[in-house]
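for the writeup, i need someone to sanity check this before i put it in the appendix. the sequnce is what the collaborator sent (i think, or maybe the updated version? ugh). structure was predicted straight from it, no edits. if anything looks off just tell me and ill rerun, i have time this weekend
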Amino acid sequence: MNFSSITIKDIATALNLSVSTVSKALRDSYEISENTKKLVKEYAQEHNYRPNPIAQSLKQGRSKSIGIVVSTIENQFFSQVINGIESVAYEAGFNVIITQTHESYELEIKNVGHLTHRSIDGLLISLSTETNDITHLKTLHKQGLPIVFFDRISDEIDTHKVIADNFKGGYDATRHLLDAGYKRIAHITSPPNISITKERFAGYSKALEEAGMAIDYEYIKYCPHGGRDIGEIENALNELLSLKDKPDAIFTTSDRITTTTLSLLNKLKIKIPQEIALIGYTNTTLADVLNPSLSSVYQPGFEMGQKATQKLLELILAKRPVYDFETLVLPTQLVTRDSTARQ
């Protein structure tokens, strides 16, 4: 049996009513008697009537849908962001459509195209690690689509942006390692083109500068796809371990890079933190129970999702064009655990 729905016209034919009468009954119009409303609604429910969202959106001028583009929902941080988005969107009567780029620029373009063909009212996007050209977004923005960036942003479009304090996160993590007595601090990070990489590297650099230490670029390793491929992280780690002066600590800058680095070090039987300390960005709720427990920079993912959605809804529901935009910077939190404890 095929699962199919009926139309207003089908209901009208079956009940020998006009299409207009059925439509008004379903909308609970005062023009229709209670008996007729009851008859129509019961028949509609029994026969799987579902309103046509496209027709409704044409009538209302809105689809009541928000498009979301993230790298991957398996990432704890993005899962928390999506929870925050949904909490605000659903309260406002909007649905969300979630897509994943898996760090692919081509997939990002396809996803954005798919979402706009679904007649979304606005777009929330965190750019993929491969994205250097945002022409696809500029075109939509010029056409009037409300867009809000979060986490990985671009300054090429004048709109609202919501980010974590990446500079401070990078600074605090590096400062913590320096204060604990580590001197050769390596940095495994995402590709240099994305905003979060630049900001976290700036914090790392500032902490070293304040400690009177020059940046050793042999210790800086970029993962071209943000560590999507474990081989990227393995290569970075092997290059660091092959140095004459191996690092005594590593600062990593994403959930995937951080937890994978911890796993690889354990597989290599490198003692953490006795041989190499590790601190990284991660929102995993398992940080306390990993072996060893993981020092980390925590981002307010849920709040980021809430704030980004609130700003997007402001644009969608605005009666007049909006020309004043904000970049909201949310605080990060440093949590120190066993992986950086000085022995």
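The chain is about 45% helix and 15% strand. The mean pLDDT is 92.
thx in advance!!
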